[in-house]
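**Discrete fold encoding**
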Amino acid sequence: MVLDPKSLLVEKKHLHTPPLSEIADYLNEGLKSNFQDVKVDVVDCPDLTQQPFTLADKGLNGDPKLVEVGGPPFLLPLVQKDKVYDVKDIAKLAHSDPAFVIGAGAGPHPYIGKNCEGVYNLKITNGTIEQHTRISKVVEGSDKPVQEILPNTESRVALLANFFVSEGKPGKVLKVSARKRIGADDFIASIRKTLISAYPEQLVGLGGAFLLKEGKAKQHVMPDFSKTPLNSDDDVNNWLNFYNMSAPLVAVGTLVNGDGGLDLRVQHFHSFSHHGEAGHYHIDTTPDLVEYLGYFNVGAEIYRIDKPNITHAFGRD
């Protein structure tokens, strides 16, 4: 079962879309406080269907937008299991067809049989799914989570999601290379904080994919739903399973430089791999070794779908 899309409140807001060259200039300066080596350029997007990214479509252009569905209040303090959506419906609500959808969300627990992480990576054309989405789940009795690829027949997302949606067309994108972390911020936070400084009065959103080329990253995988209320970040962190996952990791998601009055999650990236590891990205754990390569585009608008009526600020790291 999924929620009837007609029942979902949809809010839309235009985003500020600075020239990519302007954003690149800001990032080239701003990221230097967090990484020893930084290079940001505007380039033609490489074919993201190829190694090492292996995404469902080639590019990040063609009506690019950010979409946020639900939110942590549907998971915490206690789960609302009825909050299950079909990504095909979400794409229609965002007026996207064809739709190349990448991002981070809670996986389809009705299909998997338990709570899980979703690393969303799919293409929708005239209602037909080309599914490359992975889920990551905790297996009792094992010290490692398990990654699975969803079939074309499964296109649901539960509880919360942050998607970058485009037509998957080639075009200009930001190429962000960073190596050797010298600051306290993770890769995405360093980009986001630069955009906060650069555009303090305007809402700017980026989406795309990055590769953790070298090093390891702290990532979490949610266990099955908590039966006792989780009322703080400490409660959440004690419930989550944290892992040190190895490169190469391919992460997908979105970031925004503010809340926009829409109760937005300001950054959310999940990663998958071809060696079995997948989860919610927090930060690299090997700052001296780490190397990132990201491709991002700016969203022209954001769709906020089924925003929780009662909200809170925890469970968003």
